[in-house]
Amino acid sequence: MSERTAVIASRVGLHARPAGIFVAAVGELPLEVTIAMAGEPADDAMDASSILSIMSLGASNGDTVVLRAEGEGADEALESLVKILETDLDAE
Amino acid sequence: MKESRTIVQTLSDSAGADQAPADEAETGRTFAGVGVSPGRIIGSVLLMPKAVREPAVGELLAAGTSAGDASAALRTAAKAVQANLTARSASAVGAGREVLEATALMANDPMLVKAAVKLITNGASAERAIWDAAASVAEMLHNLGGYMAERATDVLDVRGRIVAELRGVPAPGIPFSETPFILVGEDLAPADTATLDPAKVMALVTASGGPQSHTAIIARALGLPAVVAAVGVDGLTDGTLVFVDGAAGTIVVDPGADEVALAKSWETTTAALAVFDGTGRLKDGHLVPLLSNVGGAKDAVKAAAAGAQGVGLLRTEFCFLERDTEPTIAEQVEAYRGVFDAFPGKKVVVRTLDAGADKPLPFLTDASEPNPALGVRGYRTDFTSPGVLERQLQAIAQAVEGTKAQVWVMAPMISTAEEAEHFASLCATAGLTTPGVMVEVPSAALTSASILEHVDFVSLGTNDLTQYAMAADRQLGQLAGLNTPWQPAVLQLIRLTVAGSVDEGHDKPVGVCGEAAADPALAVVLVGLGVATLSMTARALSAVAAVLASVTLVEAEQLAKLALSAHSAADARRLVREKLPILISLGL
């Protein structure tokens, strides 16, 4: 199981346009990725390819989230997702 | 200026040319309704699909359908809806594009689909499963509040589309087409009209609805020809070519050479009517300031460009219609200031939140009232949700600081002088210097002298005044004949409101900000009755100004007398129109 943390950079938090961009990126991966707020048990992690799950997570600007995935290429995949979360997508 | 648009479509490029052609027997068939927004246009019909019916509670899998088959069907439908919304987002721009992209992702969302599949495994039908699964998600979003709560409606929209796809019926909402079309439906709800794209919709035609319905109001605001209460028109098929006359109220199936000529001549008229010089006056120089009704800063900028001499009605609830919670003072200040900044040195009349009846706001109104038009609405929400009005007045006062607009404030749905006095005291506390009230309840028209002892002006809201004077619901097409401000009883109430102002003795102005002011012939009557200012949708300014400039005050007063003494609304309208030959020459 690979695990990475990311600090949400978008000023509006992880919803609206930033959430859409993130979910689309997860959807292109051949892996199952989960997302949770830092400090929450891994069992409560949500499906990162679900925009509705992401929205219900309610991560705001500056919050830390934990991404998890298993399988070949998981490390690289999570790195790419961390980059997305740590970019202010709302500014682009 | 009106954007150039091809008004006459040919069959070959019409939206539905590849769909079912009009039935031979339908050719030349005419439907008669009530014309609510002028314009003559030819185009092809697209029908507004009916709202998606809720699957029966507890509906189970049909005999012979396995849970596996139903789950597969649901996944296919969810994918199809996603693909359709993604395709639509590609041709959208700006905020509309982002909303469609996010909605497309929701349609095939793993969490939503998984929850529905679980219900199917437990025996529910695919339709019922997605219905309940989406309802739970929507409730969860709703409970999160704020931005998330606003997305709950998107989930419910997606749900309707998936159920429609499973049933093989057209998706709900305004139909999508690459080419412009004439939208035909039973009636349109405010939620439908909010997404209406005037570049795609050429005209609106409804089988139900009255002259004051939302369909009519939005059509006038967008300058689209519209006919309401045209019984049977929703039986037309997609792709049928029709001629719509929004002044006469007629629809002709498969139009001939006469209709083509009429549509062409309308193009010339609209070009001639596109200009208003920014000063409303009669032939004798008597000034009648012409203002505009606006719903926010965007409208205000357009109204200023159209020459409006100020804002006669800022509908503050339109800034907040999709909201679940009360807007903050800072949000309100920003929304109001945008309007004030469009009219430096000019008058802007702000109407406090007019929630209720056909404009519910979840944080103010009770949707379960048996009779919302007679319920807790407008100013009356201050009885049940005290504090909201005071905070709004504070926000208006803050927004006034640093702007050059002359800001007046008025309350909707005032019934008594006591209420007017209370509202004036709230305004004084907030530091707002020019309080006024709307006259839309007959009791306020009859007691305007007492009301004006407490406030500085009144503004007649003729849509509601008509519905209350005639006891006729403005949404009901069957009552369209009663629901017109040409009714002599309504004109009498307007006359009495002006008389009350004269009795009060300080020359306090009586304005009109209802749809009546946008009817050029009725505008002449209103001025003849002593109304000082007229406020209307910006599109109507040039036509009203042109007609007012053709009469003197004495002539307007004579026409008002003629209308007051008429035996019916139809007679009043006909008698006045006969004396205004300019209407014919302008095609109004």
TrEMBL record, chain A:
Annotated keywords: Cytoplasm, Phosphotransferase system
GO cellular component terms, semicolon-separated: cytoplasm
Pfam family, one: PTS-HPr
Location(s) in or outside the cell: Cytoplasm
Family matches, as InterPro entries: HPr (IPR050399), HPr-like (IPR000032), HPr-like_sf (IPR035895)
Superkingdom of the organism of origin: Bacteria
Domain HPr: 1-92
GO biological process: phosphoenolpyruvate-dependent sugar phosphotransferase system
PANTHER family per UniProt: PHOSPHOCARRIER PROTEIN HPR, PHOSPHOCARRIER PROTEIN NPR
Record's protein name: HPr family phosphocarrier protein
Organism in which the protein naturally occurs: Cryobacterium gelidum
Taxonomic lineage from the root: Bacteria, Bacillati, Actinomycetota, Actinomycetes, Micrococcales
